[in-house]
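User: I'm putting together a small comparison set for a docking exercise, and I want a reference complex before I start. The sequence is below, and the ligand is flavin-adenine dinucleotide. Could you produce the 3D structure with the ligand included, as structure tokens?
Assistant: Of course. I'll restate your input first, then give the structure tokens for the complex.
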Amino acid sequence: MTTPKTQIVIVGGGAAGLELATKLGRRFGRKRHDIILVDRNRTHIWKPLLHEVATGSLDANMDEVGSRSHCHRWGYRYFYGELAGIDRKARRVNLAAVSDERGREVVAPHSIRYDYLVLAYGSVTNDFGTPGVADNCLALDSRVQADKFRDRLLNHCLRVSRTMSADPASDARVRVTIVGGGATGVELAAELFNAADALSHHGLEVFDRSRLQVSLVEAGPRILPALPVNVWPMRRE
Ligand SMILES: Cc1cc2nc3c(=O)[nH]c(=O)nc-3n(C[C@H](O)[C@H](O)[C@H](O)COP(=O)(O)OP(=O)(O)OC[C@H]3O[C@@H](n4cnc5c(N)ncnc54)[C@H](O)[C@@H]3O)c2cc1C
């Protein structure tokens, strides 16, 4: 009788899960271990790059990692699926069905046995329950959200450019308010101006950074609180 392989299941192939699966795959291989990475996305992009994806400075397709080819290369298996529950008694993770954008089922609900289970499904932006945030704001937690932001931004820039072509005296602007003066918010603000400069080379001849108005809202006394005070040039309003 063959001994079953030791099954290590990692849920979430982000910064932590992908690295762990890679290291375990490299260390143990497929001979006596079955290392399984489950993620609801087929590709991974390093989250700190999302502000560049959101402004169009970075083409996410160039920088993301495809889970299928990566697992083939590094000795683990990848399952496309979303965690629905854990049966600790039976030592199984239950995965929900995955459907395409037309609602047709792609992957049926199923469960995977584990000997070791690692939950690495990350976190999402905390809106502190502030009314209206969920309905009216965009977060930057995933590539989908970054793509959505970029599309809205570009469409708005195009509208402003068109208005200015028709009426050069117009005060049309792209106004962006960013909530949170940590690294993501500050980098996004800066990247928006880089993107505005680049747009003039990409067909928006009547558009420049003066048409962009970015407001950064921060509840604390200063932005970038993790940095020393001497790197804190900032205009407060
Ligand atoms: C815009 C932005 C900028 C950042 N900049 C920096 C920085 O400059 N420096 C820094 O150190 N950190 C930065 N961070 C934080 C850093 O990205 C996170 O700390 C890190 O990604 C956390 O890693 P993680 O593996 O825990 O989660 P994640 O990287 O978020 O990975 C979670 C994974 O789990 C998957 N998942 C989630 N739920 C499920 C589910 N139910 N079923 C299956 N899969 C699921 C997701 O698809 C994702 O692939 C930034 C974060 C953001 C959003």
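Residues 11-17, 38-41, 44, 47-48, 50-51, 82-83, 120-122, 140-141, 183-184 surround flavin-adenine dinucleotide (CB under 6 Å). The CA atoms of residues 12 and 39 lie 5 Å apart.
User: Thanks, that's exactly what I needed.
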